[in-house]
Amino acid sequence: MQTPIPPFGTPHAFQHRLGRRVKTLLVLLPTLALSLLGAYWLRFDGHLQLDQLQQWWAALPLVLVVKTAFFVWGRLGRSWHAFFSMHDAVRLARVICLTTLAIAAYNTLMPAEARLPRGVIAIDACLTALLLGGSLTLRRRIREHRERRRFGDSKNRQAVVIAGNAIASEVFLRSLRTGNHSKYYPVGLVTDRKRLLHREVAGVPVLGLVDQAAEVAQTTHAKTVLLVSGELPGSQVRRIVERCDEADIKVQVVPDVNRIVDGHVDFQPRNVAIEDLLGRESVSLDDTQVADWVRGKTVLVTGSCGSIGSELSRQLLRLEPARLLLMDRSETGQFFLERELEAAVQQGQIEIIVADATDYARMEALFAQHRPQLVFHAAAYKHVPLMEKHPGEAVKNIVGATRNLADLAREYDVETFVMVSTDKAVNPTSVMGCCKRIAELYSQSLNPIEDEQGCRFVTVRFGNVLGSAGSVIPVFRNQIAAGGPLTITHPDMTRFFMTIPEASQLVIQAGCVGAGGEIFVLDMGEPVRIMDLARDMVRLSGLQLGIDIELKISGLRPGEKLYEELYAEDETRRPTPYPKILVADSITMSRLEITRHVSRLLQLAEADGLTVRKHLQQVVPSYHPELLAAPQPTRLRAA
To answer: Of 511, 508, 529, nearest to 417 (Cα)?
Structure first.
């Protein structure tokens, strides 16, 4: 059993470090002395005279002091372990070169009779590198050999094939070795790099590419493939799962290896989730620019309990704002958010605010008290069919709240106002989508014109996010758990999907780079057929659609579109320096005109639904509430 390392800063920790350094010196000093003696022996062809031995003995203290000083300066003691790597080897070579130059320079200042032969200095450098580098490399090889023998003990362990990105797979394999009770026995690795074929990674042979996971598992008689998550695109995960299903091979997913790097080594592989099949390749954003933009500022997030609002809050907190104001009208949601972010709340970095954005007086008091510099407006109703029944509430919640916050942002000198919009605002067929489009127009109209100074108003538009409350994926999961039926409104319906963290990250980036007045559109990738989504979720549950569980086609609901769009016909798309962020250049409305329309709409919010819809259509001519002909409800059953 390993002796635990004492906590940093305690007397025991100091003794531990001191003892480790003494042990290092007890190995280092004799090695350096032997290296210098060996250099003399080689320089004089193995025939050392008494005067040469005396010269070695006289020079030894100086050489040991200089080399030890440089080794301490280069922190080589940190490389003195069984995990000696190429990075450590380069650092060792650099320090040896500097040490040799220092000794050679000092040697020229010495009297001629006391100088070390130049050949001795050169040979000593080579021997030092060979002895130190060789011994550390040998130590690593011995450790790896022991691990390989332990890995090779497959008794009572499950044979698995590891599939994934090469770097992530190596981290995972090394984490397996640290666990004395790992139930997995890796028989092979399939990776994304051809040049690694027929080599070894962490002692495990690379037997193929990622798409060959099923074939390699069959060849090695492994019954399980472990996917290292976080790096593989969803399309590739789908192919692996389909091929493994055909070969009756189980597929499981290893949690994000970053948690392993952070010290969370008690991982538990899970079954493949639908999010793994819909995942996309990650993109690197300008974290430095975003951090500089947020750091030290007071930031307000509305709708902080929602899927996007809560993730925005988490990501913004990591960017070190001076104060993060999290506002939502759901006291229950705010209670749980406060529990989650308890440490930051106690430090005064976060303030949880229960308030309604439609209450202008309450919002004005909030702005006057806290003076936010950045505002992320994510609060809004989102369930289309419910808003069709209550159009006046949609107007108040979406249009009214946006007007309140945008007006106050302009009045209280907010630097940037970021409004979170939706693809339902494009050619809307629903009250909710039309209200979002009006909110876009109002926000755009307040952006400074020509020589005006003031708040930058930025809008970010995107589609569905995976796993948000009430969205199709949680609904399908509940229906599958209940034994069905699975309900789909139309067999040809498609939707765009994006993960909540990615959408939130892109929202922050767009807010950072926006000059003001733009509608940023996030690249959502390819649309997904909801029918295919249902089939995948049923299959991942170990069931078959139409046999184990029924599928019901219920018909389009009020306000629902067959497919979503990210751009209107009168909008032109323009690229930005960021791969997944585009700009939609659209026809705007004058500040006076949109203000008049919004005021009238809010006056009509208490009127009947037909009156509200008529005025919505006057503001947004592309709003067409007429539904497509919906299919009659049907069920798919087993024959």
So the answer is: 511
Asked if residue 309 and residue 415 are part of one domain, the reply reads: yes
Give per-residue pLDDT as tens, 560-595.
778 787 878 778 888 888 878 888 888 788 899 999
| 210 and 313 fall within a common domain | no
Look-up: residue for tokens 């666990």? Answer: 179
Q: Give all strands of the β-sheet with 250-254 in edge-to-edge order.
A: 200-201, 204-209, 184-191, 158-163, 224-228, 250-254, 270-271
* Spatial CB neighbours of 3, under 8 Å, sequence gap ≥ 6: none
pTM over 0.85: no
Q: Are residues 519 and 402 in the same domain?
A: yes
- Give the C-alpha separation, 543 to 49, whole Å: 86
Q: Quick one: tokens of 205?
A: 């042979």
Domain termination residue (choose one: 121, 147, 173)? 147
Q: Do residues 79 and 175 share a domain?
A: no
Secondary structure (H, E, C), 144-184? HHHHHHHHHCCCCCEEEEEECCHHHHHHHHHHHHHCCCCCE
Q: State which of 225, 242, 272 marks the end of a domain.
A: 272
Residue 214 shares a structural domain with residue 315: no
